[in-house]
Structure formats: C-alpha cells, structure tokens
Structure to design on (217 residues):
C-alpha cells in the first residue's frame, strides 16, 4: 500500500468514533483534503532503517503527528481570519471548527502519549502558543513565525518514525526535517516530494545512533 494512502487511512481510523456526526464529518473532510506529509515522513523515517517494525503501529504514530498538525493549523487559520466577525452563520461554523481543532490535537496527544515522542509533541504545542503571541508584535516576521509550526511538526514526524525503529533522531536529522518544512512557498512540501533521497538523508543523519536505544526527547 502506498504510504500516503496508508497514512490517510490511519488518520481517518483514529477519528472514526468522533460524535456528533456533523463534527465527525468535518474532521474526516479535513483529513481527506490534507497534505499527508507529516504522516508519510513518519513512515519513511521508520522504513529507512529496514527493521522489523509494525507498519500499522508506525502509521498510527504518523496519524498522531498528523492530527496535532491539523489541529494547530486550523487554530492558526481561525486566529488569523477571525471568522466570528462575519455574521452568525460564519460564527457558528467557526465555533464548530475550533471544537474540531481541539479534537484533532487531543486525539493526536492520545495516540503519542505512550511513545518516546510524547514530550516532544507537548513541546510543539507550547512553541505554537508562544509563536502566536510573538506574532502580535508590530515588528514580527509573521511569515517566518508561522512556518515554525511546520518545522516543528516535521521534526516531530522524524522523531516519531525513527524512535519506532529504536533509533534516536539526533540533532542533525531534526534540523534537516525543519529545513524541509521551510523550503518552497507552501506550508509543507508535498508528500510526493519525499523520495528515496529523503530516506537516504534520514538514514545518514541518524545512522550514527542506529545501534543505540532511542532516548526520550
């Protein structure tokens, strides 16, 4: 199965029990439209070490990373656009969207809670909150600040994948993942841009730690 298909299926499955129906449909629709780059990078980061890892388990870790990203990305969009000012209908949709954002993040935390990346996931959310506060400053580089979320999420993705294979990602690999997020004009590089070259870089940058137990970040 293609990694993007596996990743999207894992994310959808992680949200399958959400009610009420209207909220569940909103969550599933956003996953259907999402770039699955964080989840695919998680899978690739585990696959790079060619060890006998449970693919479904890694896909679930990828779903956790993906859901946290979707929740924070939606929160960022709502904070910037302030749809509550556009009338009652827009306000009602915005209220549902902020609930969806909370569900995304909380479900992502739940999935990663018993993994080596639990603390790193909390750090992503804390950094996001600090950045959104800094963004309000008159001289803030808002574009650069906003892109910090993508950098942190892709670093979380490689950590979630490599630790599933028993490998600490190391600072060089985390920095590489952050750089991937800052390339190009879109929020994230497309999942299709993650190639064998990307896998080789992951293996090379984290390879020095491949024989060591994964450390809690």
């Amino acid at each position: 199965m293609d990694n993007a298909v596996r990743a999207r299926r894992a994310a959808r499955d992680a949200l399958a029990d959400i009610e009420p129906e209207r909220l569940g449909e909103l969550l599933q629709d956003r996953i259907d439209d999402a770039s699955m780059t964080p989840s695919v990078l998680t899978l690739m980061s585990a696959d790079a070490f060619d060890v006998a890892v449970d693919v479904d388990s890694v896909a679930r870790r990828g779903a956790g990373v993906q859901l946290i990203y979707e929740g924070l990305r939606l929160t960022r969009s709502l904070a910037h656009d302030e749809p509550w000012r556009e009338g009652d209908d827009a306000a009602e949709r915005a209220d549902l969207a902020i609930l969806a954002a909370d569900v995304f993040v909380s479900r992502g935390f739940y999935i990663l809670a018993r993994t080596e990346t639990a603390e790193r996931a909390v750090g992503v959310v804390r950094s996001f909150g600090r950045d959104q506060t800094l963004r309000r400053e008159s001289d803030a580089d808002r574009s650069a600040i906003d892109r910090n979320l993508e950098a942190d999420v892709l670093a979380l993705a490689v950590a979630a994948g490599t630790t599933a294979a028993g490998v600490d990602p190391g600072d060089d690999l985390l920095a590489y993942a952050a750089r991937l997020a800052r390339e190009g004009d879109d929020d994230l590089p497309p999942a299709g841009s993650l190639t064998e070259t990307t896998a080789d870089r992951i293996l090379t940058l984290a390879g020095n730690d491949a024989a060591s137990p994964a450390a809690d970040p």
